[in-house]
């Protein structure tokens, strides 16, 4: 699995990245020695360390044994989890909110861990489709829930500040599994919950028919 290959050391090549940025600036028509840009390459090196920090997260340390036995079998959901990621095609940001719901199968996860899982996979070079699936795959692996739904709504700067330049366009991706996909009553419950508590008014239509 991709998260199992993520490096966990704290080393990051800030100066190596900075050197590349210093070489890029003249190609853009800028003077890398002028005052406003003198420290920019190092800042960019440090920025990429932060924006791609998900590669260096240890999943076991992230979970920190926060998986608990439980006989609760109702819907569990966390909505409106902010995420920020980098599109792997243009290295421009895309950002939005994630909504996660699951039906436990004898285990629940600590509340803070779901946003941390979203963050772990978002802080990488990504596409929204894969980000959605990676979150779902990881939660499926650690919880084996009866049902799981992961829905992301994202705004992509590669389609807002360049290209088609559509500032209101939003992308919706979803992974729906188990009873939340096969049981019509439960599917309606989580979709209603999603729109009422976290999703946009057009999200239910975007998710398609029940």
Can you walk through the features of this model?
The chain is elongated, with a radius of gyration of 20 Å. The chain is built from 8 helices and 7 strands, in the order H-H-H-E-E-E-E-H-E-H-E-E-H-H-H. The protein has helices at 14-27, 40-51, 59-63, 113-122, 128-143, 179-182, 184-197, 203-207; strands at residues 67-69, 76-87, 93-103, 107-109, 125-126, 147-156, 171-178. The protein has 2 domains: 8-51, Orthogonal Bundle (GTP Cyclohydrolase I, Chain A, domain 1), CATH 1.10.286.10; 65-207, 2-Layer Sandwich (GTP Cyclohydrolase I, domain 2). The strands form 2 sheets. A 5-stranded mixed sheet has the order 5-2-3-6-7. A two-stranded antiparallel ribbon has the order 1-4. With 210 residues, it is an alpha+beta fold.
**CATH fold-level name of the largest domain:** GTP Cyclohydrolase I, domain 2
Question: What is the straight-line distance between the termini?
Answer: 31 Å
Give the total of beta strands. 7
The total tally of domains equals 2
User: With helices defined by DSSP (H or I, 4 residues minimum), what is the helix count?
Assistant: 8
Q: In percent, how much strand structure appears in the residues?
A: 15-25%
SSE string, helix = H, strand = E?
HHHEEEEHEHEEHHH
Helix/strand class: alpha+beta
Can you tell me the CATH superfamily of the largest domain? GTP cyclohydrolase I, C-terminal domain/NADPH-dependent 7-cyano-7-deazaguanine reductase, N-terminal domain
Tell me about the biggest sheet? 5 strands, mixed
Instruction: Provide the low-confidence segments as ranges.
Output: 5-9
CATH class of the largest domain: Alpha Beta
Mean pLDDT: 91
> What does the overall shape look like?
elongated
Report the oligomer.
single chain
Sequence of strands across the biggest β-sheet: 5-2-3-6-7
Report the CATH architecture of the largest domain.
2-Layer Sandwich
Helical amount: 25-40%
Q: If you compute it from the alpha carbons, what radius of gyration comes out, rounded to the nearest whole angstrom?
A: 20 Å
